[in-house]
Design brief:
Blueprint (H helix, E strand, L loop, with lengths): L1 H18 L20 E5 L6 H14 L3 E8 L7 H6 L7 E5 H23 L9 H7 L16 E6 L11 H6 L3 H4 L1 E7 L9 H6 L2 E5 L4 H9 L8 H8 L6 E6 L5 E5 L1 H19 L11
Parallel strand pairs: 1-5, 1-6, 2-3, 2-4, 4-5
Antiparallel strand pairs: 6-7, 7-8
Length: about 300
Amino acid sequence: MLSLQIDADIITSLSEKTDKGDQTEIKEIHPESLIFYNSVNIAVGKQGTGKTLLFMRDILKLDRLKLPHLILYITGDGKITDDTFIYLSQTLTTPYITIAHTEAKEIINGLLYYKNMYNELFSTRKLHKLKQKDVLLNALYLNEFPDYDQKNTRLHTILIFDDIAYSKLFKDPYFESLITKNRHNNIITFFGTQKYTGDAISSAIRSQATSICIYNGFSPRELATIYNNSSIKGLDYQELKRLYSTVKNDQCLYANSKSSEVKIVDLSHIRQALISIENWKVYLTQSNQLPLKYLSP
C-alpha cells in the first residue's frame, strides 16, 4: 500500500512537470530548428565556410520563439571580429553580452547563481513576493517575471564560444564540468572550430556534443578523425564519407546524436540572394535609377 501511495505522488508531481513542459531534457525545440534544448553544438569548418551564419540562423529562430533570456558571446579578448555576428546580432531581440576568456568563469558562475535563485523562488512561489525584484531582474536581463501557471518558465541561456580550437579555457576543470550540466543549468552551447583533433578540442566537448556540422574542405583522413572522435550515430564511416563527398560550398553535413538524424544543410540560397542583391545594386547605380546614398546596407 505504501508503494502505491508513493507511486501516486510521483505520478501526480511528474504530470505537473509534463503539463508545464519539461525543459530539463535534451529534446527538440521546434521542427524547423537544428538545435535541441540544453544541447552542445559544434560546427567544424575552415575559416569563412559559414559556421557563424549556421549558428546565427538557428539562434534567430530561438529568438523569434522568445526562448533565450540572454546570449553570451565568448572570445579570447572579449571583442567581436566576426562580421556575420555583428550584422545579424542587430536583428536580435534577446540581449547579448561579449566577454573575454579571462572573465568568463566569474560571469557565468554569477549568472548561474542568480538562475538557481530564480528557479528556487519560482518553484516555491516566492518570486513575485520578492522585495528587491529589480536586483534579480537586472542580473538575469529580464524585464519581468513569468506567471506561476505559465509554460516554459525556465531561463535558457545561450553560450557561443568563438574559435575554440587549442583554447586554454577548457583545460580548466570548471568549463569541462559546465558543459556536462547543460540540462540542469538550461544552457545551449555553440562551439565553432577549424580543427577537431584530440589536442585541438577538449574530449569533454566532443563527448557531450548533441549535434555536429561538418563543412567541406576536409581530407578523408581528417574526416575519419572527426568521425572517430565524435558522437555521430545513424551511419557508419563509409556512409558518412559517401554523403560528405556531396557537400558543396555553403553546405554542411549535420549529424544529431540524440535523434540519429544525418543530413546535408544547405544555406547556399542566402549567398545567392546576397549576390543577386549586390548585382541589383550595381545595375541600379550604373543606370542612375537610384542615388548611391540609398544603396548602403
